[in-house]
Amino acid sequence: MVKQVSVFLENRAGRLSEAANLLAKNNINIRALSLADTSDFGILRLIVNNPEQAIDILRKENFTVSSTEVIALEVSDKPGGLAKTLNFFEISNINIEYMYAFLGKNPDKAIMIFRFDDNISVMEKLKGKDIKLVDPGELYSL
User: In angstroms, rounded to a whole number, what is the distance separating the alpha carbons of residues 142 and 105?
Assistant: First the structure.
């Protein structure tokens, strides 16, 4: 599984920039991100090259940070690629809590980050299926 860094941000001008600048200053490379917000706060979800260091750096600067285990899957970057993966989850009665995507080095594949209520069970169901798990080391070094 992949370690995702989640940062809770006050919904005010400049707070997202503060986090990004802090990571940049410490040579933390953001591979992927997702930002969800409400009227009061946002949740910045990050895949970075060094999650443990990112967590330490952000905490030292008084950001509220947590880590979450997520699953990274390689999905064909063509019409129907995502639908094929989602169809497997539907048939297998697997609920997706959230997901986001980005492009990796392979121009024919997208990388999808998924959060499920039971990641271990999902990984067991993926064994032997035509859906490729992305190794965390490979993901962090993109």
Answer: 7
